[in-house]
Amino acid sequence: MVTAPMRVLLVEDDRDYAAMLVAELDAAVVEVQMVGSVAAARAELSRGQFDAVLLDLGLPDSNGLATFETLHASVPETPMVILTGNTDDGLAALAMQRGAQDYLVKGEADASVLVRALRYARERSAFRQSMLDRESHFRALVEHSYDAVTLLGPDFRILYDSRSIESLCGYTPEERVGKAVEHRLHPDDVAPVTGRLSELVQTSTPVSFSYRFQHRDGGWRWGEAVATDHLRDANIRAIVINHRDVSERKEAEEALQRSQEQLRQAQKMEAIGRLAGGVAHDFNNVLTAIFGYTDLLIDQFAIDDPRRSDVAEIRRSAERAAALTRQLLAFSRKQVMQPRLLNLNEVIRNVERLLQRLVGDDIVLQLDLARDLVAIRADPGQLEQVLMNLVANARDAMPDGGQLTLSTRNERAETAADTRPGLAPAVYAVLSVADTGTGVPVGLREHVFEPFFTTKEQGKGTGLGLATVYGIVKQTGGGVYLESEEGQGTTVLVYLPQAPGSSAISDSL
Ligand SMILES: Nc1ncnc2c1ncn2[C@@H]1O[C@H](COP(=O)(O)OP(=O)(O)OP(=O)(O)O)[C@@H](O)[C@H]1O
Ligand SMILES: [Mg+2]
């Protein structure tokens, strides 16, 4: 294999020594060019490509280590071998530290030593260059990757952040380096995250985790990270974390879960409604027969016959049963409606005195009714029933008295996201019934609209009040929602859609 000779720049002001050296070197192996000063060497180096520089330190325009440093600074990538008369070991060590490839003493190095030194110098420098290239290649990969890369020390402090951290959290690497990993982490996530990292350090098995962090803009985001332990890796000595913003995905997942829960709830109410409707319907047929036969029977007894009052008692019981089935039918939305265009405030005022009597003296009833409420289309009798049921519940939740506020307002939902579950975007007249009573515990809230769900003692409640409200409101095209904090009262919100084609009916008062 024929290789091109190595191109060497010999910087030496002693012409005789230089000529002797060149004569000793095999021209097929080393092709030498000679200059006698630092200035000439710089000029030469800027013009041509040299594989190595053979450098004397004592030159007319420069002396000692400065000679090397000046030239090395101008062409840092070209390997330099120092060839000097100075045998000072300290100087040799210093020159090597500053980046000289070798330090040879004149007279001690023959041609073969020189050639070997030059060759090694070239190889070492090429290797170093390829390492630098690779490092900058990987650095560029890290810097430009979409994921942010963070390095942590054993104390979980940030040693390094890639540039992409700024688009992730709004802070620059300079602002973050030196801070603890908790920086801008959600308080609730600090313990889980440091726990996972401690686990990583103990087991050296990569860990992944999600966490919330605060962006510079103040908003909270979701992050997802994979951490690997390189603390014992001599080249890295850090915990390496790859992380990214997954807020959009998290939000989509949460929205999906919410809508699935709402769908399940709606389906359950639908199924219970069908069941209740079916039972009530068949039960009504039975009751019709009971009414028919009791009416026939009663006529067969004389007015003073004691059995006559027994039969009347049977009829009264059947009437109570019929009242129950009517409520069930209301829940299953099978009640006959007589809807008309009306203003919700008007319905409230009509029963205000009745409601006042219902709540008694210990409860302060307050009305807060909006002007220009949109018109709705509903059965006023049914809406009165809704009010009575809600007010009765509020009263029962405040046995020692309290405050009950009935209010109305308009609410406009432009998109499905603006509005409550199960409601279409529209304009609604909203009734709010708020009490300062016991509240409803968390686990019970999703059951309150089910028929026969009651927490009241036997004989006090049938559990049909809210089921009836639910049925009536649904039949009117609206929705009903219960908000409650245990011990802090309850608010029931009834949404009734604006009647199609109507404008606000101004209050009659
Ligand atoms: N304002 C409220 N404050 C606290 N709990 C309430 C309130 N409204 C409803 N609840 C809870 O919801 C349950 C169901 O209410 P619902 O009106 O359907 O039945 P009920 O009041 O128990 O019986 P009834 O059929 O006589 O109305 C109640 O038993 C109570 O536990
Ligand atoms: Mg009730």
Overall residue-averaged pLDDT value: 90
How many distinct domains? 4
Number of helices: 13
Percent of residues in helical segments? 40-55%
Q: Give a count of the beta strands, DSSP E runs of length 2 or more.
A: 17
Order of strands in the sheet with most strands: 2-1-3-4-5
Quaternary structure annotation: single chain
At CATH level 3, the topology of the largest domain is: Heat Shock Protein 90
Which spans have pLDDT < 50 for at least 5 consecutive residues? Answer: none
What's the helix-strand series? EHEHEHEHEHEEHHHEEEHHEHEEHEEHEE
- Label the CATH architecture of the largest domain: 2-Layer Sandwich
Record the SSE blueprint.
Elements: E1 6-11, H1 15-24, E2 30-35, H2 38-47, E3 52-55, H3 65-74, E4 80-84, H4 89-97, E5 102-105, H5 111-144, E6 148-152, E7 158-161, H6 165-169, H7 173-176, H8 187-203, E8 207-214, E9 220-230, E10 238-245, H9 247-298, H10 306-331, E11 340-342, H11 344-359, E12 363-368, E13 376-378, H12 380-397, E14 402-412, E15 427-435, H13 465-475, E16 479-484, E17 490-497
Parallel strand pairs: 1-2, 1-3, 3-4, 4-5, 12-14
Antiparallel strand pairs: 6-7, 6-10, 8-9, 9-10, 11-13, 14-15, 15-17, 16-17
Give an overview of the whole structure.
By secondary structure, this protein is α/β, with parallel strands linked by helices. It has four domains: 6-142, Response regulator (Rossmann fold, 3-Layer(aba) Sandwich); 145-245, Beta-Lactamase, CATH 3.30.450.20; 251-331, Helix Hairpins (Orthogonal Bundle), CATH 1.10.287; 340-497, Heat Shock Protein 90, CATH 3.30.565. 44% of the residues lie in helices and 21% in strands. The protein is built from 13 helices and 17 strands. The chain has helices at 15-24, 38-47, 65-74, 89-97, 111-144, 165-169, 173-176, 187-203, 247-298, 306-331, 344-359, 380-397, 465-475, and strands spanning 6-11, 30-35, 52-55, 80-84, 102-105, 148-152, 158-161, 207-214, 220-230, 238-245, 340-342, 363-368, 376-378, 402-412, 427-435, 479-484, 490-497. The strands form four sheets. It has a five-stranded parallel β-sheet, sandwiched between helices. A five-stranded antiparallel β-sheet has the order 7-6-10-9-8, with helices on both faces. It has a five-stranded mixed β-sheet with strand order 12-14-15-17-16. A hairpin with a 7-residue loop joins strand 9 (220-230) and strand 10. Helix 10 (306-331) packs across helix 13. The radius of gyration is 45 Å and the shape is rod-shaped. The mean pLDDT is 90. The structure holds adenosine-5'-triphosphate and magnesium ion. Magnesium ion binds at residues 389, 392-393, 461, 465.
